[in-house]
UniProtKB/TrEMBL annotation:
Record's keyword terms, sorted: 4Fe-4S, Iron, Iron-sulfur, Metal-binding, Methyltransferase, S-adenosyl-L-methionine, Transferase
Protein name per UniProt: Uncharacterized protein
Cofactor(s) in the UniProt record: [4Fe-4S] cluster
Alphabetical list of InterPro entries matching this protein: BchE-like (IPR051198), Cobalamin-bd (IPR006158), Cobalamin-bd_sf (IPR036724), Elp3/MiaA/NifB-like_rSAM (IPR006638), Methylthiotransferase_CS (IPR020612), Methyltransferase_Class_B (IPR034466), rSAM (IPR007197), rSAM_horseshoe (IPR023404)
Superkingdom of the organism of origin: Bacteria
Coiled-coil intervals: none
Domain Radical SAM core: start-end pairs: 211-432
Domain B12-binding: 3-159
Length: 501
């Protein structure tokens, strides 16, 4: 193991025991490493969860996935970095990130520990209360982290750097945020060569997945979203400014992934890839022009109101096989006046139907359990999902994250338990958490039963042996979920589900 100046760490993963592993490449660290390497900094990435993916320790109703504490300390000592950057993508994973910081200091107290991501951006004061974290990176990280490395001398924490927060005695100093990088084409491609890519490929095939390809890789073509949804914490990092890479730059990266990793499927992980229809069309044309053999999809969601039939046809031709739409609610009042999204339900149905007609698989995400949402409003969401030609629907329970309007509403109504991280939603003005969990299961069951009555929505996608194999895989996964949920409901003695009869 080679000694480095900077070590970037993805912490171990703690999940519910019934969750899949969730191991995926930390692209944020790979982008950071690429930026540093371009500036001749000797950098490495340690993905603790991936490197210890087979080390699973049960902790109550959760499991910890990743290297153990002793192994982590040993690796840090071998790398012997001057600076360590730890990612903390969500408040849900704050404890893992802070524990990792303590292990870094245990390995060498002189290492400068910086933490970045959504949680340190939104709540730097809480992070810096931990004595093991020297400073936080708020917002976009590449330039800020580079400045930290340049200015870190004589064991003194750098202070006057845009986009950072640090401790000064008992006070927390928040420097102004750094302006966003305007030209994303100037950023080098993520350093996937510093990541254990074979582990990610292998793990993705172990668990229930909905992909056609066997070597799936994620790509981010833009940053930010102009939307202002009440539940979304993404704007705390990127603001509401949308910036995009050029079509040529995006397809250059895809071509390199095919060449270097034999990638056969791309997941575009943008928060809003379709803001500029012209650019999305150019990406499709570039893929077609280069004759790249690639399948792709949009698992983070795509704005259905920004699509049209011409674009959908081009996307299909360029290798798109499945689209996920962030529809969120079937009740107009909740959609417009609480969430802050605006689209026409009939137009959405039309786009879903057309996508299905041309052979695209369609899925949508819906959210239930907003703080003021009623039974009737949730029923309208479920009924709307059923009334469409969607192949799949996922019903999430609203989870209040710091930095969002929804979080403030839950606080205002005294609905958040004190000093507890919310993992799967919480009670609302009208429902207990257990009631919402039962409603969520009932919604999925109702949707799947409605799809069993419409087999042509699935069979009309079969045009080849590959399509047939995919529909078998998809059907098997969905049937397992359906059967398990129904068995679970039969075992439960609670009568809460009767609320929906």
């Amino acid at each position: 193991m080679e000694k480095v100046e900077v070590l970037l760490i993805n912490p171990f993963l703690t999940v519910q025991a019934d969750d899949p592993s969730g191991i995926s490449p930390p692209l944020s660290l790979a982008y950071l490493a690429a930026y540093l390497r371009k500036r001749k900094v000797k950098v490495a990435i340690l993905d603790i969860s991936a490197k210890g993916v087979n080390q699973i320790k049960k902790i109550g109703n959760k499991v910890r996935i990743g290297l153990n504490d002793k192994q982590i300390v040993k690796k840090i000592k071998k790398y012997n970095p001057r600076v360590v950057g730890i990612t903390c993508t969500s408040t849900l994973h704050a404890s893992e990130a802070l524990k990792t910081a303590s292990l870094v200091k245990k390995a060498n107290p002189k290492i400068l520990v910086a933490m970045g991501g959504i949680h340190p951006t939104v709540e730097p004061e809480k992070v810096l209360k931990n004595s093991q974290v020297d400073l936080t990176v708020r917002g976009e990280g590449e330039i800020t982290f580079w400045q930290i490395i340049k200015k870190f001398k004589n064991a003194k924490v750098p202070q006057n750097i845009l986009g950072t927060s640090y401790k000064q005695g008992k006070n927390i100093i928040n420097n102004p945020l750094r302006p966003f990088i305007k030209n994303l084409n100037s950023l080098p491609f993520p350093t996937r060569d510093l990541l254990p890519m074979d582990i990610y490929f292998k793990e993705s095939l172990k668990h229930k997945n909905y992909t056609i390809g066997k070597r799936v890789m994620s790509v981010i073509t833009s940053r930010g979203c102009p939307g202002n949804c009440s539940y979304c914490s993404i704007k705390t990092i990127w603001g509401r400014v949308w910036r995009a890479r050029s079509a040529e730059n995006v397809v250059d990266e895809i071509a390199s992934l095919i060449k270097n990793y034999k990638c056969d499927e791309i997941h575009f992980m943008d928060d809003s890839i379709s803001v500029n229809k012209k650019r999305l069309l150019e990406i499709c044309n570039e893929i077609i022009k280069r004759r790249l053999k690639i399948k792709w999809t949009t698992p983070n969601g795509i704005a259905i109101w920004l699509l049209d039939k011409r674009l959908l046809v081009k996307m299909k031709k360029a290798g798109c096989y499945r689209l996920t739409f962030g529809l969120e609610s079937g009740n107009k009042d909740v959609l417009n006046n609480y969430i802050g999204k605006y689209y026409n339900y009939n137009k959405a149905k039309e786009m879903i139907s057309f996508a299905s007609e041309i052979g695209l698989w369609t899925a949508a995400t819906f959210i239930i359990g907003f703080p003021y949402e009623t039974k009737k409003q949730i029923e309208e969401t479920i009924n709307f999902a059923i009334s469409t030609d969607l192949n799949m629907a996922v019903f999430y329970i609203a989870n209040p994250f710091p930095g969002t309007k929804m979080y403030e509403d839950f606080l205002k109504e005294n609905l958040l338990p004190r000093n507890k991280v919310i993992i799967r939603g919480c009670k609302t003005k009208h429902f207990s958490h257990q009631e919402l969990t039962n409603i969520q299961a009932k919604a999925f069951n109702q949707f799947m039963k409605s799809r069993f009555k419409r087999p042509l929505l699935y069979l009309n996608k079969v045009k080849s042996l590959g399509d047939l194999l995919y529909i078998f895989k998809l059907g098997k996964n969905l049937m397992e979920i359906f059967i398990n949920q129904n068995l679970s409901n039969k075992i439960k003695k609670s009568g809460i589900a009767a609320l929906w009869k």
